[in-house]
Amino acid sequence: MQWSTALLLALTAPSSALIRFQCSQLVRERLDPLVSPGLVPSPHVHQIVGGNSFNATMEQAKDMPGESTCTTCQFSEDFSNYWTAVLYFRARNGTYKRVPQHANAGFDGSTGGGMTVYYMQDPLYDTAQKSKVTAFKPGFRMFVGDINARTKEQAAHFRQLTYTCMDDAGSREHETVAFPNHVCPYGIMTSTRFPTCWDGVNYDSPDHMAHMAYPVNGTFESAAPCPATHPVRTSQVMYEVIWDTSSFNDPNDWPEDGKQPFVWSFGDATGYGNHGDYVFGWKDQALQNILDTQCYASSCGGKQQSIADMNKCAGLKETVSEDIDGWLDALPGGHQAQYS
Ligand SMILES: *[C@@H]1O[C@H](CO)[C@@H](O)[C@H](O)[C@H]1NC(C)=O
Ligand SMILES: *[C@@H]1O[C@H](CO)[C@@H](O)[C@H](O)[C@H]1NC(C)=O
Ligand SMILES: *[C@@H]1O[C@H](CO)[C@@H](O)[C@H](O)[C@H]1NC(C)=O
């Protein structure tokens, strides 16, 4: 009896530091200041959230809290930029239409659907969230995934880049590494989890990944230690993006050969090329202060703003002018769906 009361308390009022918050969409276009800085347009379309000083260049010395006048994220001292590729539907006649996004349950009204961002000290199921983690520093950025991966073996280099086929807003089970191969009534969630062990020295690396590593075995979820090469334990950064596939769920519109119809903006129709980009931009010690506090989700203090205020920062003027919504004969940048 006592045990279940304690558990109930832990679930209803957890004393933990698991930061979870919504960001509205800042802009959606072909820019990628991390992988192809200065290139206008970049090779494929992204959807970007966070501080409004986002631009094509984003040098490491950029003062994101200083140069941004607002952010589309709930924590108003978070001027980081977070981005992913964009999902398209490929019709039987070979033309493409962009798939819109839903915000997570509880964040309705967030412009463009945006994304939900997490910073976790310990695995999600661990409500204590007590481990000490080091916050990222100005100039820090990272990438996870391989846009060229088209097989399960290639995708296996990355742990925890997944899809969830959603029956309803609460669906979280049966994550897959490939695109779901059947109709997902509510939509498809992509969960992008970054590595959690930092080399402690480099704020970036040529492939934007080598300065980070996974725990020695298992995943962050299995609470394994960091390797000696990358000894500094950071928080687990995770993005949840929900693609609202509901207007593309008629099986009569799906390929006749039994394949699924969704394709990433860079042409991947397998799903194995799932990837994400992160550029740190929290003000001063704001992130470390929250990570050092026992708190949960949006009860984590700090300075926060309403969804209406987040949305006021959305709609950054596009640098690249082109139709990215469809129906398009090719994905922006000239990509076509690749199935292998
Ligand atoms: C991006 O913003 C920086 C200031 O942070 C500016 O120096 C640079 O010229 C901008 N680059 C582009 C391509 O607009
Ligand atoms: C291709 O198919 C889509 C979806 O059925 C339709 O809306 C579009 O008009 C078609 N385009 C052409 C050129 O037939
Ligand atoms: C991971 O490695 C640690 C240390 O070598 C070991 O104690 C633990 O059992 C391993 N866990 C798994 C899931 O293999």
From TrEMBL:
Keywords: Signal. The keyword Cell inner membrane does not apply. Residues 1-17 form the signal peptide. Residues 32-282 form the DUF1996 domain. Coiled coil: none annotated. Pfam families: DUF1996. It comes from the Eukaryota. This is DUF1996 domain-containing protein. It comes from Lophiotrema nucula.
